[in-house]
Specification:
The complex is a heterodimer. Chain A is mainly beta. Helices cover 13% and strands 35% of the residues of chain A. Chain B has two helices and twelve strands. The chains are: A mainly beta, B mainly beta.
């Protein structure tokens, strides 16, 4: 079995630096000409929590917040997930010790990184063998139920990082504005959006439909295989495929937003894990942010087109999908 | 006279000998009677309706308001369609009917107000609307006219709504209730004969593709041919 650590593509809950765009993304690894999604095949996922707190957060408070964060994901009925707390540990959250550890590390050098997730995977299958999450103790933290102004909420950031631990990449379902020193979130509708809300916010303790769709896609339950569906097709510009476009499905009945990306040179996209119903599609480029939060920087992501609505209502049947939707965008 | 035997007309006779006499004059002897079967079919139309607006929202860091990404306004077009029914006369004045309606309304979603200036678009789809219905009809024979050829009636009933979105893979179901007033105009005088049929009234639907789960009432009209067995 070939094993290697996946590089830091998978990680970041940035304070600043990225993308007003839309959609969840699954982490994957190239296997020959295909991509294997990263996922845990052996469950329950056993995790340890370091036996150290940080300023303002005791070790028991930290462990309790981590347990609550796993419970948030465990509560998704349409995802087949289970976790086991293996106990507190003096070990650091570093890869290679065959332990999945969550804990603090003091990393003042990473002055814009609140936390990060690293993996050891089976590169032939995408199976996650170990994953570790560190929380940067050079930032101020809190586990207060209502949040504390000026301190980052452990549970909010942990829910995001555990999303990565489970195989979810960053979602672009959010809007930001430039401020001195980076970007500020104007609004987000996914815990997996790569920029955290301001210190004091506890919004990201709660999963949104984009997160639920993503995790249901990776770990579908028997129920979700019957009840959820997908939309697939391609994004084209002047007849050619568009790589890296963000395609967002808007449920016309519930208002839920779930996004995906066109992931090949033909502009092919699939948005899975959708509740059955009728949807409209909105497409926009990743044109004003750090594309590397989402894709390998070697890819030629096309950002030369404007935001666009598809002119057909798209139907998602339970347990099925609508294929061959062509979204035509035009150059700016 | 065959139709004088119904309980309802006996009751009318007690109240007014004049009224029953007029009915005897105006209703033809071969009007639908107990055991008659009426098959009918034709066209229908119900107007469209607004299904409301919704905003695609993002959560802001301040909990009191949202970031509006864009707005959607959904409406359904009118329901031009067809119906077929089969009725059985329990008596000269009452019949029961079962049937089906079919229409192909268009569901339209207007998308506007995009935060990044995407051009406004109306996205649409065509829905297959099926309604399986049952009704009770009260034929007002004492109000018949045109030598008994034209017989008004009142109708009430309920239906099972089955609506298929484009591609026929997504089915949404609901209920329908209706109260109608109509007119049968029979040609000729034989026991088996053709007639015209017109009716209009109110139809109240619940669920189906409608996002509003309360009863939505709309006018509806029907027109078609009948054949009496």
């Amino acid at each position: 079995m070939t094993r290697r650590a996946l590089p830091a593509l998978v990680a970041l809950a940035l304070v600043a630096g990225t993308v007003p765009a839309l959609g969840y993304l699954k982490l994957g690894t190239r296997v020959g000409s295909t991509t294997a999604n990263l996922k845990w095949t052996n469950q329950p996922v056993r995790y340890y929590v370091t036996d150290r707190g940080t300023t303002g957060v005791t070790a028991p408070q930290f462990q309790s917040a981590i347990a609550a964060s796993f419970a948030v994901w465990d509560a998704v009925e349409d995802a087949d997930l289970s976790f086991t707390f293996a106990g507190p540990t003096p070990a650091n959250p570093t890869t290679g010790d065959s332990m999945t550890v969550l804990g603090y590390q003091n990393r003042p050098d990473l002055d814009r990184v609140l936390g990060a997730t690293n993996f050891i995977i089976d590169t032939t299958t995408g199976e996650i063998l170990e994953s570790d999450i560190f929380f940067n103790s050079s930032f101020p933290w809190s586990t207060d139920a209502q949040g504390v102004t000026g301190r980052h909420d452990v549970q909010s950031i942990a829910v995001h990082e555990i999303g990565h631990l489970l195989g979810l990449g960053h979602s672009a379902l959010g809007e930001t504005e430039m401020i001195a020193g980076g970007r500020r979130v104007l609004g987000a509708e996914s815990v997996m959006f790569p920029i955290a809300f301001a210190p004091g916010s506890i919004h990201d303790r709660t999963l949104r439909e984009d997160d639920i769709a993503g995790i249901s896609d990776i770990y579908p339950s028997t129920q979700s295989r019957r009840t959820r569906g997908s939309i697939s097709g391609k994004v084209t510009k002047n007849g050619a495929g568009v790589l890296g476009a963000h395609v967002v499905a808007f449920n016309t009945r519930t208002g839920a937003l779930v996004g995906g990306f066109s992931l090949n040179n033909d502009g092919g996209f699939t948005i899975a894990g959708l509740q059955s119903g009728t949807y409209t599609l909105r497409t926009e480029p990743l044109d004003d942010a750090d594309i590397s939060s989402f894709f390998d920087s070697s890819l030629n992501i096309d950002v030369n087109f404007g935001a666009h609505f598809h002119d057909r209502v798209v139907v998602v049947p339970p347990g099925g999908g609508t294929r061959d939707v062509e979204v035509k965008v035009t150059p700016k | 006279m065959r139709n004088a035997a119904t309980p309802f007309l006996i009751f009318i006779a007690v109240l007014s000998l004049t009224a029953i006499a007029e009915a005897q004059v105006s209703v033809g002897g071969d009007a639908p009677q107990r055991g008659s079967i009426e098959a009918s079919g034709g066209g229908m139309f119900a107007p469209g309706f607004d299904m409301g607006s919704m905003t695609a929202e993002l959560t802001r860091s301040t909990p009191i308001d949202k970031f509006d990404l864009f707005t959607s306004d959904t409406e359904v077009s009118g329901f031009p369609g067809a119906f077929v029914r089969l009725g059985y006369y329990l008596s000269e004045s009452f019949s029961v009917e079962g049937g089906m309606r079919y229409a192909r309304p268009t569901l339209s979603v207007r998308l506007s107000g995009d935060a990044e200036n995407a051009p406004d678009v109306t996205a649409d789809e065509t829905v297959s609307h099926y309604l399986f219905e049952g009704s009770v009809l009260w034929h007002l024979r004492d109000l018949a006219f045109a030598s008994g050829s034209a017989i008004p009636y009142l109708s009430g009933g309920a239906g099972y709504l089955r609506e298929l979105h484009e591609g026929n893979q997504l089915v949404e179901t609901g209920q329908e209730y209706h109260a109608l007033a109509g007119l049968n105009f029979w040609f000729g005088s034989g026991a088996h004969r053709f007639g015209l049929r017109f009716e209009g009234g109110l139809s109240a639907r619940q669920k189906g593709f409608d996002s509003d789960e309360s009863l939505r009432t709309q006018p509806i009209v029907f027109g078609g041919l009948s054949y009496l067995f």
